[in-house]
């Protein structure tokens, strides 16, 4: 999954502390706890474009960046 692959691709996860759970809504696009910032632009550009639903939820994410995604929506 994205969460497992994150380290390999220099992706910074918002909740580094294990007590902050990532993926609170289990991938149903109802939270933004799985917000990830893709540090590698080449990798970001290889990803499928976010859906409108993902973008709406990303707007609510803390610290949104140009290369932010929701981890649960990225394979
Ligand atoms: Fe809730 Fe991704 S786990 S939006």
TrEMBL record:
Q: Which GO terms describe its cellular component?
A: mitochondrion
- Cofactor needs: [2Fe-2S] cluster
Q: Where is the composition biased (Basic and acidic residues)?
A: 1-19
Single GO MF descriptor:
2 iron, 2 sulfur cluster binding
Q: Where is this region: Disordered?
A: 1-20
Keywords linked to the UniProt accession: 2Fe-2S, Iron, Iron-sulfur, Metal-binding
Q: Which one GO biological process term can you cite for this protein?
A: P450-containing electron transport chain
From the Swiss-Prot or TrEMBL record, give the protein name. Answer: 2Fe-2S ferredoxin-type domain-containing protein
Which species?
Linum tenue
